[in-house]
Amino acid sequence: QLAESGGGSVQAGDSLRLSCTASGHPFTTSFTTYVMGWFRQSPGKEREFVGAVNWSGHSTTYTDSVKGRFTISRDNARRTVTLQMDSLKVEDTAVYYCAATTLGFIPNDIRSQGDYSYWGQGTQVTVSS
User: Fold this and answer.
1) What is the torsion angle, in degrees rounded to the nearest 10, for the CA atoms of residue 38, residue 41, residue 26 and residue 51?
2) Which residues contact 41 (CB under 8 A, 6 or more apart)?
3) For residues 128 and 16, is the Cβ–Cβ distance under 8 A?
4) Cα–Cα distance for residue pair 5/118, rounded to 1 Å
5) Do 20 and 116 contact (CB within 8 A), yes or no?
6) Where residue 24 falls among pLDDT bands split at 50, 70, 90?
7) Mapping DSSP to helix (H, G, I), strand (E, B) and coil, where does residue 91 land?
8) pLDDT tens-digit readout, 34-89
9) How far is it, in rounded angstroms, from Cα 42 to Cα 64?
């Protein structure tokens, strides 16, 4: 299971940190097998890729709209993935989802929902002006 936490309501320009904790099968024995991604979905829009991190945490990729503002990291010992969001904008308002895939970390090939096998329930982030 994947469980997100840390969502909330903030002002534009503020920061927020989301966490995703992996538990149960298969993550308790093979968390490092998974590339971990973050997606978001705004009302009336399709779910979109935000970013992803490879198994070690040493490689990341982001969608252009969040580059330089969002940072993804992971702690394999705790089986957690963090999305640090800085300089938030109103257009960042969405439900944010954590996801896991066993695909290799090829940045252009892990940006679709269908690439991911496991999903969290989502956490709401609201940014107001």
Assistant:
1) -10
2) 47, 48, 94, 95, 97, 122
3) no
4) 16
5) no
6) very high
7) helix
8) 999 999 999 999 999 999 999 999 999 999 999 999 999 999 999 999 999 999 99
9) 17
Mean pLDDT of the chain: 96
What does the radius of gyration of the chain's CA atoms come to, in whole angstroms?
14
Helix runs in 8-106, H state only: 27-30
Residue found under tokens 């940045």: 107
* CB 124 within 8 Å of CB 5: no
Mean pLDDT within 17-42: 95
Burial 48-76 (b: 16+ CB within 10 A, else e): ebbbbbbbebeebbbbeebeeebbbebee
Tracing tokens 């992996």 back to the chain, one arrives at: 22
